[in-house]
């Protein structure tokens, strides 16, 4: 498919208005809460697009935003943890992608919503491991994130939960999360491309949605007030819950 044809197809996508709205809200949530964009976007997009296209659009949409932050992240990240997380991810991601292409469309949609709700409950409840972090736990968390990233696009929450128990300072945690998620995006796009499943239409649609997503991200960051962090997190939890519930059969 040529780029003009892909652009025309993207503009004619049924439910495009809902995708733009989901990208805007996901960007706002990411901007003022620092997490949750995939948990907002995926349950909505899964109601509009096929499974592989849904994942590809999310990955392309989120690919550009972190690039300016990579040099600083590389300076302050914990290199050992990053390598362990990425090693686990590379092992488990292909299994997640295999399951993604094997799942019926409806099961994918409901699975994305269910995983979003489970992760939301874990984050909101502050669930965390309170013992000593072992190396095998970091490998396992990277693998779980890779598997979930391949099947649902939700690779971040397991790593966030892991680092709730981490002794690392906040800048290192943020850098590790950014680099890990960047690795997931890059490896997943490469695997989809090598398998011939990365369609031009999904790439163009992802680039289109990156504009409202990044714009809303900047606005969300500008609106953020550290003194009201709990309020912002509560709003993010509510938005994620509404998005996840909308994809369940209860609301068909």
General description of the model:
The protein starts with a helix and ends in a 6-residue tail after the last helix. The mean pLDDT is 85. It has helices at 3-11, 16-33, 37-45, 51-63, 70-76, 79-102, 105-125, 135-152, 156-163, 170-194, 200-223, 229-246. The protein is mainly alpha-helical and 252 residues long. The radius of gyration is 17 Å and the shape is globular.
List the SSEs and their pairings:
Elements: H1 3-11, H2 16-33, H3 37-45, H4 51-63, H5 70-76, H6 79-102, H7 105-125, H8 135-152, H9 156-163, H10 170-194, H11 200-223, H12 229-246
Based on the model shown, name its key terms.
77% helix; mainly alpha; 252 residues; 0% strand
Task: Provide a brief overview of the structure.
The chain has 252 residues and is mostly helical.
Catalogue the unreliable spans: none
Q: With helices defined by DSSP (H or I, 4 residues minimum), what is the helix count?
A: 12
**What is the average per-residue confidence, as pLDDT, rounded to a whole number?**
85
Radius of gyration: 17 Å
Instruction: Spell out the helices and strands N to C.
Output: HHHHHHHHHHHH
**Biggest sheet statistics:** none
Quote the distance from N terminus to C terminus.
33 Å
The percentage of residues in β strands lies in under 5%
Structural class: mainly alpha
Principal-axes shape call: globular
Fraction of helical residues = over 70%
How many strands in all? 0
